[in-house]
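worker-3 :: picked NnrU domain-containing protein
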Amino acid sequence: MASSFLLSSTASFPSNHHHHSSPSLPTHSSNSISIRLIPKQTRRLQKFLLFNNNSNSSPTIPFLVSSRRGFDLVRTSIRDADAETEQDSSVVVGEDSAAFELGQQKLSSWLYFSVILGTVLFVLNVAWIDNSTGFGKAFVDAVSGVSDSHEVVMLILIFIFAFVHSGLASLRDSGEKLIGERAFRVLFAGISLPLAVSTVVYFINHRYDGVQLWQLQSTPGIHELVWISNFISFFFLYPSTFNLLEVAAVDKPKLHLWETGIIRITRHPQMVGQVMWCLAHTIWIGNSVAIAASIGLIAHHLFGVWNGDRRLALRYGEDFKLVKGRTSVVPFAAIIDGRQKLPKDFYKEFIRLPYLAITALTLGAYFTHPLMQAASFRLHW
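worker-3 :: tokens ->
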């Protein structure tokens, strides 16, 4: 995301080896130059100017950052520019999450996406879900043969999915170099999706087979608490899931460094959303299978916190350090301790088409729960 920087210089820059003045930068009549830079280029320019200035005094160069909120003065001297960059949360080095410009969409891309989605669902049904042709039932039966305990089988299914999903994610850089971004995304989805379906179907079919530990479904207010918790949890979806064209490899998949929207609240929103979902379902179901599923899913996402930060640090280096320094894993922690400064129009980062779509899909999923349960039961996994 590019920003416009207006540099106004009031100091001369002597060269390192000569007493005469260094060649002056091109200027307008106002003694200012207008440069369009991304934040990483800006820091490089600051370091270059500092390296080439041997004067004892610190030259004053105000930076005005152009944004939707107007121009903000973010630093006044080159010498302390890097230190101030780390503290100034108004200078966004990451990407704007959940951004969706309808005018920039291509009809051909979404038609291509529809064809790919239909093809994937057809292949998934034939090769995995349909008991007469697919391998899904054989896979679940093989895992179920390990133990008579539904809790153990549930944990094994989650572990297999987590191992494959996180393992492939860790191999993303080398895999993309070897076979390309799109091919690796197809491989990643082609292996992860069937395993995810098996895990979800098994949970739906056996969610009431465990040892009942409590029964709170008739308690006043519990249904409302569980419903609201589940509804909110879907708004913590990882922002990359909004990039459907990348998910389907229509657009070239990228490892994004997000910084706005839900990331201001927590750097790992998918983990937070999964914890909320697990706690809500465990409270509602109240048995050992629900607890086993929650333990497995939460453990997987806690590992994802570490692994995700590690991968972003390798890919983005200093930019990720800046984002990490002003965000938090625990929701609202960075806001409370002052490391994250919310803009006045923060709410606008959520009034976007992807979040409207999430609202509709979440409501739809709630009302179609009986259909999901009936479809899972017919598989007999």
